[in-house]
Each structure stands twice: as C-alpha cells, then as structure tokens.
Amino acid sequence: MGYSLGGILVVLLGPGLALAIDGLSFLVAGILIWQLRKFDKPGDIEKQQPVFKEMKDGWKEVRIRPWILACVSAYSLVIMCYEPLLAVVGPYHAKVELAGAPSWAIIAGAHSLGMLCGVILAMRLRPKHPLFIGMIGTLVFAFWPLATALNLPIIVIALTAFATGVGFDLFFVFWITSLQTHIPKESLSRVVSYDAFGSFLLGPLGLVIAGPLVELIGIKETLLISSIIVIVAVSAGLSVKSVRTLQPVK
Question: Which end of the chain is less congested by CB atoms within 10 angstroms, N or C?
Fold first, then answer.
C-alpha cells in the first residue's frame, strides 16, 4: 500500500510533499512504538557475558552449520543486487523508459503485494526441505532485473516483481523458522546477529556503485550483471548439501 500510495502522492502533490508526509508517518510510528516501553521487564534479561565471548560463541554456532554460511553468503550478494534495483536502478529505469513515478508505483506495489502473498503461502506450506524451496524462490528474483533490462512491458516487469516478493518471503519465513528450530535458544540472538550482518553486508556497496555503474556501462548492462550475480550466488548456495536437505525439526 505504501509504494502505491507514494506513487499517487508524487503525481498529485509532488515529491517534496510526498516525502514530508512520509516523514510524518515515521513520527506517528515512533509515538506508537514509544508506548511499548510499559512492556519492558528488565528483570527477565539474563546476565550478559562479555561481548567478545558472546561473539565467539555465536560464531561457533554459525561455523558448525554449513547451511547458515551458505545462505547468508548467497543473500549478501542477492541483497547487493536487490537494494540498488529497489532504490536506484529501478526508479531510474522507470523515469527514463517508462512513465516515471506512476510506473514505479505499480512495479513496487506489485512487489510488496507479492511479499504479503509469500507470507500467506508460507503459512500453508510444509515442505520437506524448506531451505531448498526458499532458495528456489529467491532465484526467481533474477527475472526482475532481466525483464527490466529487456524493456519488457510494464505488466511483465510488475509480474516478475510480484514473483520476487513471493519468493523472498517464502525464503524469509522458512529461514527464520529453520533458525528458531535448529539453533539452541541461548544462542539464537547471536546467530541472528551474524545472519543480519552478513546478509546486508554488501547492500551499501551495491547502492554506492549502482549509479556510477549505470553511467559507465548503461542501465541494461547493469541489470544484466545483477541478474547473473543472483543466479550464481543462489546456485552456489544450493550446491551445499545441507541447504538442499535440511528438514524441519519434528
């Protein structure tokens, strides 16, 4: 809804007022989150260990599970391609090749709708090998930059964005569930910290180089490179046996 509403506001009010309204929405969110302080229970927090010991213990849990290393490494490259598509290359392509903000609102809105459908679908599926299905869903992302690079009709690009949203959130639900059921409770937060750090590590790099790369080699070539990187990264992750064979804990 946010992406679609954003496109409408840009068209009707202009980007400045649209950003101002967006900023106010964060203020409202902050006020709502502030209300959560009454649920804080410091007495429930276990005695903390030295931070470097916690990092060492968390890394040990990650290192002994190849499926974590494989998926986090793959997603680090996937996010490196995803962030620029969503924030730089995609909007720029919509401005240059399509109808600008309205076109991008349709594409990004379809992506968000796909993520919602992915969560709903994941609630109903009980695959024997959830990470394998999740990584196959992630592989669908490669079609979004490919369709954009080929200047296919906006409906096709929107459908690939929708399918990407479905695939991403299928993986996300299966991934978080796998972590929660295979990692000891006392180590879960440390492992999730390594997961977040590794998965988003290259995202800022992608954002930094996307603009210059488009100027240097062009939109089409940049998007094609993104598609190839995603295919190689996910394929490498799937080459790890435990990613393909990990089963839910019964």
Answer: C
